[in-house]
Amino acid sequence: MASVLDELKRKEIVDLLAQGKRIDGRAFDQPRPLSIETGVIPKANGSARVRLGDTEIVTGVKIQPDKPFPDLGDKGIFICTAEVLPLAHPDVEPGPPGEDVIELARVVDRGIRESGMIDMSQLVLEKDKSVIGIFADNSVVDHDGNLFDACSYATTAAILSCKVPKWEIKNEAPVLVEGHESAPPITTIPVSVTMGRIGEHILVDPNAEEWDCIDARITITTNSDGNICAIQKGGNDGFTVEQLLKCADISASAATKIREKLKQTKG
Amino acid sequence: MASVLDELKRKEIVDLLAQGKRIDGRAFDQPRPLSIETGVIPKANGSARVRLGDTEIVTGVKIQPDKPFPDLGDKGIFICTAEVLPLAHPDVEPGPPGEDVIELARVVDRGIRESGMIDMSQLVLEKDKSVIGIFADNSVVDHDGNLFDACSYATTAAILSCKVPKWEIKNEAPVLVEGHESAPPITTIPVSVTMGRIGEHILVDPNAEEWDCIDARITITTNSDGNICAIQKGGNDGFTVEQLLKCADISASAATKIREKLKQTKG
Amino acid sequence: MASVLDELKRKEIVDLLAQGKRIDGRAFDQPRPLSIETGVIPKANGSARVRLGDTEIVTGVKIQPDKPFPDLGDKGIFICTAEVLPLAHPDVEPGPPGEDVIELARVVDRGIRESGMIDMSQLVLEKDKSVIGIFADNSVVDHDGNLFDACSYATTAAILSCKVPKWEIKNEAPVLVEGHESAPPITTIPVSVTMGRIGEHILVDPNAEEWDCIDARITITTNSDGNICAIQKGGNDGFTVEQLLKCADISASAATKIREKLKQTKG
Amino acid sequence: MGGRESTLVLLDKNGIRCDGRKVTEPRRIMIKAGVLKNADGSAYIEFGDNKIIAGVFGPRDVHPKHMSNTDTGIIRCRYHMSPFSVTERKNPAPSRREIEISKVIKEALQPSLMLEKFPRTVVDVFIEVLQADGGSRCAAIDAASVALADAGIPMRDMVCACAAGKVADTIILDVNNEEDQAGQADMPVAYMPNLNKVTLLQLDGVLTHNEYKKCIETAIDGCKLVYQIQRKALTDKFFENGGNQ
Amino acid sequence: MGGRESTLVLLDKNGIRCDGRKVTEPRRIMIKAGVLKNADGSAYIEFGDNKIIAGVFGPRDVHPKHMSNTDTGIIRCRYHMSPFSVTERKNPAPSRREIEISKVIKEALQPSLMLEKFPRTVVDVFIEVLQADGGSRCAAIDAASVALADAGIPMRDMVCACAAGKVADTIILDVNNEEDQAGQADMPVAYMPNLNKVTLLQLDGVLTHNEYKKCIETAIDGCKLVYQIQRKALTDKFFENGGNQ
Amino acid sequence: MGGRESTLVLLDKNGIRCDGRKVTEPRRIMIKAGVLKNADGSAYIEFGDNKIIAGVFGPRDVHPKHMSNTDTGIIRCRYHMSPFSVTERKNPAPSRREIEISKVIKEALQPSLMLEKFPRTVVDVFIEVLQADGGSRCAAIDAASVALADAGIPMRDMVCACAAGKVADTIILDVNNEEDQAGQADMPVAYMPNLNKVTLLQLDGVLTHNEYKKCIETAIDGCKLVYQIQRKALTDKFFENGGNQ
To answer: Does F55 sit within 8 Å of A43, measured CB to CB?
Structure first.
């Protein structure tokens, strides 16, 4: 239910867009300032604290032996979760994740998984019986819009910064071999770029105020080759084909700088 | 809370009963038209689509190896569930099953189980370790009253139409033997007949409008020998002993035709 | 939200305290009459029915083989739960336990556990693989305040009255050896004493009316040596250090009589 | 049921059952009314090895409000088993079995209550099974009905309950746990003796139509025995209180 | 996706797919409108081996009330799979996958509905997958849109959906289950043909920018085929009812 | 506690603990106020290896409304651990331990707040443990109290918390993880230094009455050290903001 204040804010945003301006002064294809710090949770195998504008995420990666999924006995496991903490925004209530947060976690998960970022075939301890599992958990501590990209960068950075322990199978059980950590088997660096459409305008990385006004949104993830490896359209309106093609171009171009930044977090 | 319209409908039904008539023109001991179609879900091991008047059920049976229940190591497993889908009726809300649906599933389950319909001793792969489990799941897609009988017929038909795969124990684990399906070990065909009491009148297979008016109800299941193998009384009033004896007679007699129809679904 | 009646009751209690009196005539350091009956649930391995004033608990202990906790392979398992039954008080609603009941169970559990009452190292069947588990479940059937002490006494008495069955490991699985029950390995008898503070007054074992008026409360558990082995402070105000020292003295002195009573329940 | 095997002799040649009872003899039954302080009404029953307590609150306001009915009072019922009540420790969360039994007990008790006198209210019946044996739902109903009377809820009749069943091809009264496991049929019945109505009837196992009739009649005879014990429990409490006051 | 291996020949040298189809040929599609008695609108679809039923209620009052919007109507959507719909029996509780698909379907349908005409109300769309195959979310949208029209909800356009994908380095229409498992990319698309808007777009797998363009165009061609079948389903029901009345 | 064995030397002959600290020396403590944008007040603490963030909202309307109190404001508290905060990945659902700690933290903070000034409202305190070490509940209270001050909630006093304990028969300040696992007693204490009141007190492990007294006094000395660090955090933020504006 839009309040009068919300309506005024929306009008301000739309009027500015007509003049070619965004409410925080950014160019349409310009994401907010991104800062990435890794190793922030020493007890995790990998971790990152990401700020994208005023959106802030802390992500920890735990690595431990697990059983493979049925029919995928020659692949390791990757599982990604997200929680928007109630301290991140006044509207968040504690409790099990709603559909928004479930979508968030699944979109971040797919961006990593479908890009083939991690070579899962290198995470097998004993085929069909024991594999290495990588669990990436995102804790959203400040919510100022576009959690998709912020969580995606935090997850990617946390994975890149990982030290993977070594296990050997003894008596059919994995046993930790101390002091033999290695970098994870990385094949590419996926970069998620989320765009919102307000009228005819496509805005990269909408902040919370813009997010409340968008007609539709799309998250396009590209890999290191510039190819598209995951897409999620959302929001209560659609895109024309022309807009979709334009979004793909914007996404590939915006991803380049961000990928460079992510590369530097490699352990 | 009965609305005025509900009250008028109730008066109409009761007035007609006083004249020996039911609201849809049926005789008191006459169930609604029953149609049974099997094999509707080819991916299930057995399946049926049942319409009883305007009540419609789709039931699928899955058969898979499982561990036996403790202390029942020489018996296979049979589990029956029911969900009244929210598209089946405007009053149904999505979510975990309420007491009505739990009772429904348990009554259908008991009718099959207590009749000894399936010879569970023939579903053992390795005593105390590995048995065959039969899972019958009822999806109610249109709810026009008397789900007990409709789900019972759908479950029975789905079981009768089953092809049971063959497993052999190799290295302590069940291994599927392709191309060796067989009919399930059937010993009898149970038929559930539900009756509602309105005043002194006993109505077989009440439809939704009648269901809302009944003082009490009883479901009596008989086996192929005509013996009684399961009973469930429900509703907010009781029965006299005379009424209970009459219900048993009605049930046995109404079951005969339905059993013939069910027999034809045998694979 | 305090009603007018609650306010009047509070005033009465406070006024009496100023005259050195409690509302039910007890001395400040005097617990309510305690009755303990063991063996009330013959199907359990140990059981007790405790009345502390009008608060009544039935506690059953089940003993069964289990896997040890990780990293505690040389210790048996002890788990304590509590449910305040909805028949115990008009304000109790059925459903999963709230924070009050979770705290109750954990405080009772810690009092037993931290005292070392049961020598858990004697409950090992096979190191790291199979141990004896002791499950103490408290059912509160009448709630007239101070569930902490009542549940603690009931749990302690139920444990003391236990007959521990004997298991032997055969083919890596525990097998019951009939007719070889023994007393549990008891090292000390912990006694929980709960005190409420109303203004400057410290009241032992507050009843429900007093409980509604307390500023803060503290539960201090002492072992057979008179040493303190568990503490839980609660309530919406604090204690001075002097009050805390006084409470420890009261607790040790009040525990003596109760410990004697508990000793008599030893099987 | 339906052909479970057993080495247990359920009925010997002298017509004596595995626990020493005759064919139409119930187990020991003891009922005490008014056992709880906080509940508006309560009762404790020992029925064979069943140990069950029932507590009643109401008529009282309904929460959540949308459940209330402007035309009549309603009844809610919770049948619950303590974790220690059965041989293997039971998970405290209500099972599907407990939810179904709660429902049939509610429907067994409701016809006895004059709820129409108390629109917009609820009567809550809470039943805790401290120790379970065969026939626990019947014992629960027996205790709950006494608790409802103890609470002073206006009633048309008591509800008394007892099972009958079939072992060794013989109809017996009050099926115990072993007979339930190894026998041929178990039929719990609840009955209002003055209104002559059966308010709960379930059956697991196979019966001919004649056996069905005999089973109902046997169970109702058992219900009438229970009725006397329920009356005595209420009388005892009345005079005990009278004596105390 | 992204490199899963398979011995399956997904595309033979004649350009024929593993199920015999040509590159731009959809599977068999059958839609029937008005299949349920109680729902305000309904439709049943068979799309390949998908068997899906959709039922619509509304516009109607919102419960709980705090979800309602004084400015506009809202839409809720539940996509659910029956336990027997997939090879391994599925737990009936909604999975995270089902919750996400419910959300994207809701957002795919919403642009087609004139919900602003019905403030404070809700349109509930319930989708049950009785048997699942590749492309179930597209088939679900196709059925749901027909069910919405069948319910008489004022609509700006139909929503039709079909996936495109990539196997053996070739862009294909309507990815089946084997192609989804062993192929290179799957892109479900929902489309409003008259308003020319894409309302659902997802991608699993890797595409170049050219392939991305071709995939969208191929999928939209499929959507237009579906549109004709949706129209026919509604016409058939209209005349069938006309004939009956 | 209570006799756990260990090969760790908890206290060497020079009175130095396993992490190099003296008997009454706390671990490194760093607190920063005002670290979140959206929360009304916030603080971040590093206390040994604990890394904890606290955010406060309120006083604000209570949902659901029936929880509100016409006489006073209320406080709610959630203590939660991120899945990656401990060695073995933790299930994100709140454990019974987290629920109990949430309750004792709420009761430790409540005496410091003038909630009676804000009837019908709630102050929500949300605590997230990003990395856990021994003494996390004390560190959480220290951060939460700073966050409450940062939110401008009227307060009677700060609440500062620190544990004391017993290792090698010696009372020590600020028990770390190894000392908690292998030591003899752990006693977390929260304290209001100006009102001179203990608002949280728990004990795991065995103490004589004299040790109990010494433990409380030692912990309170630690609380007073923490208090200075809390004050500095608030001052730093005040002047930092002053300087920026």
So the answer is: no
Q: Check if E100 contacts A (Cβ < 8 Å).
A: yes
Residue B56, strand partner residues? B51, B142
Q: How many residues does chain C have?
A: 267
| C5 occurs within a structural domain | no
Mean pLDDT, residues E33-47 taken together: 98
Per-residue pLDDT at B243 exceeds 50? yes
Q: Which domain holds residue B234?
A: 26-263
F207 → closest Cβ in C110, C227, C236: C227
Look at residue A10 and tell me if it is in a domain: no
Whether A263 has its CB under 8 Å from any CB of chain E: the answer is no
Instruction: Supply the CATH number for residue B236's domain.
Output: 3.30.230.70
A122 touches F: beta carbon within 8 Å: no
- Of chain E, the percentage scoring pLDDT greater than 70 comes to 95
- Tens of each residue's pLDDT in chain F, 245 residues: 444 455 678 899 999 999 999 999 999 999 999 999 999 999 999 999 999 999 999 999 998 888 899 999 999 999 999 999 999 999 999 999 999 999 999 999 999 999 999 999 999 999 999 999 999 999 999 999 999 999 999 999 999 999 999 999 999 999 999 999 889 999 999 999 999 999 999 999 999 999 999 999 999 999 999 999 999 999 999 887 654 43
SS3 A208: helix
- Look at chain D and count its residues: 245
DSSP-derived 3-state class of residue F102: helix
Strands E121-131 and E74-81: parallel
From the list F100, F213, F217, which residue is nearest C103 (CB)?
Answer: F100
pTM of the model as a whole: 0.95
F64 touches chain A (CB under 8 A): no
Residue A184 lies in a domain: yes
Q: Give the neighbours of chain E: at least 3 Cβ pairs within 8 Å.
A: A, B
Domains, chain F, ordered by start: 2-244 (3.30.230.70)
Nearest CA among D155, D143, D150, D148 for reference residue D123? D148
- Rounded Cα–Cα distance for residues A223 and A193 (Å): 11
Q: Is C2 on the interface with F (CB under 8 A)?
A: yes
Nearest-neighbour CA in chain E from A246: distance (Å)? 11
d(CA B113, nearest CA chain D) in Å: 9
| One-character DSSP codes across F151-177 | TT--BSS--EEEEEEEETTEEEES--H
In angstroms, the Cα distances linking B40 to B94, E27, E57 are 25, 19, 26
In a domain, C8, yes or no: no
- Percent of chain D surpassing pLDDT 90: 89
What are the structure tokens assigned to A109, written together?
């998960």
Q: How many domains does chain A have?
A: 1
Using CB atoms, which residue from C88, C96, C137 is nearest to D84?
Answer: C137
As separate numbers, helices (DSSP H) first and strands (DSSP E) second, chain E gives 4, 9
Residue A143, CB-side half-sphere exposure with 13 Å CA sphere: 21
CA distance D40 to chain C (A): 9
Tell me if B218 and D201 make a contact (CB, 8 A cut-off).
yes
CB of F148 within 8 Å of a chain C CB? The answer is: no
- Asked if D84's CB is within 8 angstroms of C89's CB, the reply is no
Q: Is residue A197 a contact partner of residue A216, using CB atoms and an 8 Å limit?
A: yes
Distance separating alpha carbons of residues F59 and A220, to the nearest angstrom: 40
